[in-house]
Amino acid sequence: MIKLTFIREFSFVVDVIALREVAIHDLLGRDPVKLDCELINSFIEDKVVMITGAGGSIGSEMCRQIGQFTPKTLILIERAENGLFFVERELRERFSNINIRAYICDIADRNRVEQLFETRRPDVVIHAAAHKHVPLMESNPGEAVKNNVMGTRVIAETADKFATRHFVMISTDKAVNPTSIMGSSKRLAEMVIQAMNKRSKTDFVTVRFGNVLGSSGSVIPIFREQIAAGGPVTVTHPEMRRYFMTIPEASQLVLQAAAMGRGGEVFVLDMGEPVKIVDLARDLITLSGFRPDEDIEVRFTGIRPGEKLFEELAISGEDMQPTRHPKIGIWKNVPADETALNAVLRQLLAVADKKDNRDKIIELIKEVVPEYVGDIDSMKLHEEHTVNNGNNNTSNQTAN
Known about the structure:
By secondary structure, the protein is of the alpha/beta class. The chain has a domain at 28-218 and 244-271 and 311-335: Rossmann fold (3-Layer(aba) Sandwich), CATH 3.40.50.720. Helices cover 43% and strands 16% of the residues. It contains 15 helices and 17 strands. The protein has helices at residues 16-20, 24-28, 37-44, 57-67, 81-94, 110-120, 134-139, 141-161, 181-199, 219-228, 247-260, 277-287, 338-351, 358-368, 378-389; strands at residues 5-6, 12-13, 48-52, 73-78, 99-104, 124-127, 166-172, 203-209, 211-213, 233-235, 241-242, 244-246, 266-269, 275-276, 298-300, 320-322, 328-331. The strands form 5 sheets. Strands 5-4-3-6-7-8-13-17-16 form a 9-stranded mixed β-sheet, sandwiched between helices. A two-stranded antiparallel ribbon has the order 1-2. The chain has a two-stranded parallel ribbon with strand order 9-12. Helix 4 links the parallel strand 3 (48-52) and strand 4 (73-78). The two termini are 30 Å apart.
């Protein structure tokens, strides 16, 4: 094994192979969730399956998982050219027996989306395309509206128009009592999906989960880069906690929910106990062969705009109901009034591209997502939450 090397002119140079030897499961703090592969197989086998956001971390893993269940055709939808190029090449090498079609497409481009649905006629749509980074969406709220909300509506309405049998939207724990533009945009997207389900023959369901270990832009790749550079490893706050799952777990959950769903459900995964981000950082430093705070500094940088200390993703409580799988619950809620929702969506679309639109976007979102508390002191909110609720099942999301 190549050892860590000290270079005088620079800092630490860490062998990338050594860093990759850190098993994601060692950081998870629990056993991976096992799902019903037979049920998933009956759902996917010989079907035409479309994945939006196919070049992203979750979307590409969805493609890998689906490929194991021999769909008739795998349709990859992605607007980022490089991501699409690499995932298509990988899939063609791994699944030479599957008909794979890759298309560059912005999900908010209705004409392009309808063209692809008319040509390919998917039986199943896995909707993974979204803007996910909280601080970026705080400063680009119109893009969150256009991609996460309007893009979801375009894909969902097109699936209904072309009689897709099953539609699964990937959501996030940040949609629960959101404090960010990103989280509230995903909550709006959930509402769009539930509204569509009430008037469509397509089965529309949503799957919520927390942070995904090792996904692009998440804490593990960032921590690895920081360790390789000799530190510091940056963490926003010593009490920042998140629920975590592996990329395969997340992808399998989506397929499990799709196979179980009958339409209108918001599925939630039991992800165990939340993990302190600082503990995750120190564990990764240790597993990489260093001593935290001695060889590699851990530095706190402060909570970023829109972030929470805790996220909420419990599958127990009066607003949850069990399913046939012990690790999956269904969130019970009353779908939004579609007339009021559509009125807000029209106004959001009208202001999405306007200058200085942030305050207006927040005002409109609050009309249909009253639990959204934007521009708050997250630290104060969660200190109060901790005092009032102790270690109640609050959840976590990507923050480093």
